[in-house]
Fold this protein.
Amino acid sequence: MYFADKDPLLDGSAVKNICIFLHGLGANGKDLITIAHEWAPQMPGTLFLAPDAPTPYGDLGGFQWFDLISHNPEVMASELLTSAELLKVYIEEVLKYFSLTANNLALVGFSQGAAMALHVGLYSLPPNCIIGYSGGIFIQEPGAKLADIPVLLVHGTKDDVLPIDFLHATNHYLQSKGITPEVCVCEGTGHWIDREGLASGLEFLKENLIR
């Protein structure tokens, strides 16, 4: 796992909340942990963590939560579920170490990481809240009962990796389950997190996690 290379607890307080970043395909924990430097001053008592996904990807130190290259839905689903169990164990160990509950936890994912955050958070280990950047729910379970927790979906209109249709499909699915997520559509933004998305995420966490 990666910790912010500057102490995110700028006021020296004890850990009261934890924000876990989940990276996208081919990246690693360092990819998103830099967001902690921007958010930390307005999130006192929050520890930021960013684990690597379990499976190496390519030769440049990247990782993946599940296989996308094969375009095989069964392989994708199987690997996603395996990674979800590993992630759940990791989260439980972190919460136990700091003597916190899931109500003190936010999951923030990008692309594949958004799929992981939404799956684990809504199906098995509900955190305080979830932010999904440029991603969506990959496995829809019609008979499943989802956790009714705050969700923010952020997506760019020019995303050509995971088109904004993923946001609309996830939004529709959640609403069919009685959950109304907050939605931030970033005009002209591709498959990345822009300033509007970062600002929306911070405000969402301040409203829900930091109380």
User: Anything to note?
Assistant: The chain has a mean pLDDT of 91. Residues 2-208 form a domain with the Rossmann fold fold (CATH 3.40.50.1820).
